[in-house]
Design a protein that fits this description.
30% of the residues lie in helices and 17% in strands. By secondary structure, the chain is α/β, with parallel strands linked by helices. Strand 1, helix 6 and strand 2 form a beta-alpha-beta unit. Helix 1 runs antiparallel to helix 2 and helix 1 packs parallel to helix 4.
């Protein structure tokens, strides 16, 4: 009995991985895009292991004399049992097949500080494009606000896309992106505080247009990573929501 359960769990887990990584983009909720080949290979391996375990269980049952007749017991009676805790493994295996847990969002972002952005050399900033509004990532905006001593971002109307994270206390809310180094376990967030319009519902993807919220000294770490945004509109969640990308269509 135990071997049949093991075979079933291996096969279910493998089929779930294959469905998630081959036929949908749901795997991007948990790992980076480059992990897809490894997920496919893992799914194939689990299915093969499950099949091998099932074959071994069938052969062992057929060759075991006690499985045919044993002291008056019914033919084929199986005396082995499965620990109750093992049945709990069925749930995550089935979830991969029929229900994908939601992507990380505001719940995760609200419980951690913003990711520390990389330090840019003093002469490492290129001139900003002349486009207005200027499409920019949350990371680039943060670097420009706190590190660019030329203050090129002053007075520029910028355009950014992310999802909504409520802010504790005070005015405003956060425009947020979650970034992965490898998988959901190492997720970090980058956030820009938005002032002006009422906060849309948490986890709503939006595109925000506005200018730097003048608080602190621009070009230094005292500058607020914040935006005065008269314009906010809903946006579609990108296929890979775990990147800090430019607004769609920019």
């Amino acid at each position: 009995m135990r071997r049949w359960v093991t075979a079933g769990l291996l096969a279910l887990g493998g089929l779930g991985l294959l469905r998630t990584s081959l036929f949908t983009e749901e795997y991007l909720r948990y790992v980076k895009e480059g992990m897809r080949p490894l997920l496919v290979a893992s799914g194939v391996l689990l299915v093969l292991l499950g099949a091998a375990e099932a074959v071994a269980a069938w052969r062992g049952r057929a060759s075991d004399p006690e499985s045919v007749t044993h002291a008056g017991h019914d033919r084929g009676h199986d005396h082995s049992g499965v620990p109750r805790v093992a049945w709990l493994l069925v749930l995550p295996a089935l979830s991969l097949l029929f229900y994908a847990p939601p992507a990380l969002g505001s719940y995760t972002a609200s419980r951690e500080a913003s990711k520390a952005v990389a330090v840019v050399a003093e002469d490492g900033f290129d001139p900003l494009p002349t486009a207005s509004p200027l499409p920019i990532t949350l990371t680039d905006f943060t670097q420009r606000v706190q590190q660019d001593t030329t203050r090129a971002i002053r007075g520029r109307t910028v355009l950014m896309t992310g999802f909504v994270t409520p802010a504790d206390g005070g005015d405003g809310w956060y425009l947020t992106r979650i970034l992965l180094s490898c998988c959901a376990a190492d997720a970090q967030s980058v956030k820009v505080r938005v002032y002006g319009p009422a906060a849309p519902e948490a986890d709503t993807w939006v595109t925000v247009t506005g200018v730097w919220h003048a608080d602190g000294t621009l070009g230094t770490s005292s500058a607020a990573v914040a935006l005065d945004a008269p314009s906010v509109r809903k946006a579609a969640r990108p296929g890979n929501g775990y990147t800090d990308a430019l607004p769609l269509g920019s």
